[in-house]
Each structure stands twice: as structure tokens, then as C-alpha cells.
Design brief:
The protein is an alpha/beta fold. The chain is built from twelve helices and 17 strands. Strand 1 and strand 2 form a beta hairpin. The chain is globular.
């Protein structure tokens, strides 16, 4: 064994521990329960109501129908409790929020993510099992994440369970309990980067490790890249590391060993084009369907990316995204999901700003790069307006 491998084996990773890195950004207040694999939603009562009983009888504030007969008349009680971090309230009052606590009232038991528990907190994304029914605790941010996953995977009724499986996988990965594997055609690294932003937030690092690309610091279009796995892992501390399954770094074994160390706070996201490539990572992949197979949903995909861009880029110059913009993206920038995201963001920035230089600044890119992007595509009215 080489000296570097020996060092890695005895001290798996040199990153500084980040005690908050396994707490994904989705930690806002739970506002509803949704039955797994369906769109059936049960809103939780608002203050001043502090209790909610789940069961089969009509006297329960949350009445469920369980054909298995395993649901008790009064199966569980939810109790609202104030939750805060006193030392932070003066500077971060948003940390003051209520938490729902689930208490078992039944003989058949209450489950947290499949494991029987007598009492537990309802955090966003957790799966609460009562009888033969599973309920997902949802907050505003989790609902937004589910919407983003549906944008990636599809909105048809037969895709609801697929989206919920993906939601479970993403939550496990974001809390450092599993590798997240994305499977599909084309370049999935931008999709991985988007998932990173939705789960860990834009302020946490997203780093790639592609041994065939040169080492780079990254920019608005691409993430920082390292040739060596352990170096990439160190740079990704507290965030996410993206790998290509068919082109792993030479020290991939050391990387996987380091990730098994509980001190390592990195979410591993592996992109692959073949499901069998996920076996090495002991993960069930999230399969992103090809965009040509979703022709009937293309307009909704473009619309949602445009609304997201308007919200993220800010500004109030009307219109934020016109029907002409929509048609242009559909015809000129809709081969892949990342291409749609790029096209909508750039057109929204051009609409919001007075010229190409201001739009490029808002996007975090060079004006010449934005100009070249426009020049390589059929004429769009905003390019003439922005150049004035």
C-alpha cells in the first residue's frame, strides 16, 4: 500500500467536520400530511389548535380510510410544541417555529420511516406509518422540492409514486445516509447541481470529480472540478460531490471508504447512463426520463423553469417572461432540461435588465459569453432590446 493510501486508510478524510452538514435546508414548519403515492392531502390545524388525532373514526380531526383494518379508531395524537433556539432568536427570529410531536395511541403501533416508534417529531419529509397507510410530513420547502422532482420525472398520475420514491431517496442522500444516483441519457451533472441547491442550498459547495477534465475553480456554468477523488471530497465538505459512474477517479475506493466514516459530511451524487452502474454504490437510482418522451409536458416544464428564474433573479420589470419567450425556448433551447433551465434564466435576465451587461452581471457571467450565446441561436427580440 502506498503512503498516501495508508494515510487515507488511517485517517479517511482530512475535511473539517461540519456538524450542520447533515441537516438539509428543508427544516421549515410541517403544514400538512400527504398520503404516500397520492395527491390526497390532510392540512394540519393552525394555531391556536394544539392537538390533532389520527384514526378511523369520524370523531378524529384527521380521519383516514384503511382497507386493511389495521388503523385504530384513535391511532395517534399529534401535539403542537413550540420549538426554538433561544440563543439565536435575537438575530434569527425565523428559527422560532412550532413542531408537531406524534404519540402512539394504538396496539398496532406508529412508524417513523418504517421503524416502530412510540413518539417522534414530524420533520419535513419523514414518513409516518399508521396501520397500512404511510403519510409524508410536508412543509412549504418540501412541497417545492416535490414539485421540482415532478418537473424532472413527470406529472402523470402513474408518476406520483415514482416522485415519492425519489423524494425518499433524495432525503436519505441529503442527510448523508445514502448515495444519490441519477440515471438517464445526456449530461446529468447540471441536474445533480440543481438537486444540490434544492436540498442543501446554494451556499454549500458543489464539486465534481472528473479525471479527464482539468482542475478548475468553477463558474456559473460549471462546478469546480478535481481530478483526484480525495481532493474533491475535501473541497466538497459540507456539500455535495458529483461523480460520473463510467469515469470514476483512480482513488474511488478511498473516496467510498472515507464516505463511510461518520465524520465525513458530504453528499455523494453519481450520474450514470446505465442502472447496473449503481450497484457499486448500493443505491436505487432515480431514472430521469428522456425529454422527447415527455412532449405533452414540455410547455409546463418551460413555464415552471421560467417562474423559478423570475423568483430567483428578482426584479420587477414587466413582463418577466412573455409568450414569445416561451415559444423561443421551445423552438431553440429545449433539447434537455438543463438547456431549458439555461434558456429561461437568460431570457428572464434580459427582460429584467436594461442591457446585456446588466443581464450578464445578474447571471454571474461575462457579457461576451451571453452575447455569443444569443448569436449562436435564431434571433430573439430581447437581444435587440437589451443591446440598446
Amino acid at each position: 500500500m502506498s503512503s498516501s493510501q495508508d494515510t487515507a486508510a488511517n485517517n479517511p478524510i482530512a475535511t473539517a467536520p461540519d456538524s450542520a452538514a447533515d441537516e438539509w435546508v428543508i427544516s421549515d414548519q410541517v403544514v400538512q400530511l400527504r398520503q404516500w403515492g397520492t395527491s390526497l392531502v390532510f392540512p394540519l390545524p393552525e394555531p391556536p389548535i394544539t392537538t390533532c388525532v389520527i384514526g378511523s373514526t369520524d370523531t378524529c380531526s384527521l380521519q383516514l380510510v384503511d382497507p386493511s383494518g389495521l388503523l385504530s379508531r384513535q391511532h395517534a395524537r399529534l401535539v403542537r410544541r413550540a420549538a426554538m433556539l433561544p440563543s439565536c432568536l435575537d438575530v434569527m427570529p425565523e428559527l422560532h417555529r412550532d413542531k408537531w410531536i406524534a404519540h402512539d395511541l394504538s396496539k398496532n403501533g406508529l412508524r417513523l420511516d418504517g421503524a416502530r416508534r412510540a413518539e417522534f417529531e414530524l420533520d419535513p419529509g419523514i414518513e409516518l406509518g399508521v396501520g397500512d397507510i404511510t403519510l409524508i410530513a410536508e412543509s412549504a420547502k418540501l412541497i417545492a422540492l416535490r414539485g421540482f422532482l415532478a418537473r424532472l420525472l413527470g406529472w402523470a398520475s402513474d408518476r406520483t409514486a415514482v416522485v415519492d420514491h425519489a423524494l425518499r431517496t433524495v432525503r436519505m442522500a441529503a442527510t448523508n445516509r445514502a448515495t444519490l444516483v441519477l440515471c438517464g441519457a445526456g449530461d446529468l451533472v447540471p441536474v445533480a447541481r440543481s438537486l444540490h441547491r434544492h436540498t442543501l442550498g446554494p451556499d454549500r459547495p458543489f464539486v465534481t470529480c472528473d479525471p479527464r477534465r482539468r482542475r478548475s475553480k468553477g463558474n456559473v456554468r460549471s462546478a469546480p472540478n478535481f481530478k483526484e477523488g480525495l481532493a474533491a471530497l475535501q473541497a466538497a465538505s459540507g456539500g455535495s460531490l458529483g461523480l460520473l459512474a463510467w469515469r470514476p477517479p483512480a482513488d474511488i475506493s478511498e473516496v467510498l471508504a472515507a464516505l463511510r466514516d461518520p465524520r465525513t459530511r458530504v453528499q455523494l451524487i453519481v450520474c450514470t447512463q446505465e442502472r447496473r452502474d449503481s450497484e457499486r454504490y448500493l443505491a436505487v437510482p432515480i431514472t430521469v426520463p428522456a425529454l422527447p418522451d415527455r412532449a405533452s409536458e414540455l410547455d409546463r416544464i418551460i413555464f415552471e423553469y421560467a417562474q423559478e428564474a423570475i423568483a430567483e433573479l428578482g426584479g420587477c420589470r414587466p413582463p418577466g417572461f412573455t409568450s414569445d419567450d416561451h415559444a423561443w425556448v421551445r423552438n431553440c433551447s429545449s433539447q434537455t432540461l438543463p438547456e431549458i433551465e439555461k434558456g429561461t434564466r437568460r431570457l428572464v435576465a434580459l427582460r429584467q435588465c436594461r442591457n446585456i451587461s446588466q443581464a450578464a452581471s445578474r447571471l454571474g457571467m461575462a457579457p461576451v459569453s451571453l452575447s455569443r450565446w444569443l448569436d449562436r441561436r435564431p434571433h430573439h427580440p430581447s437581444s435587440r432590446e437589451a443591446s440598446r
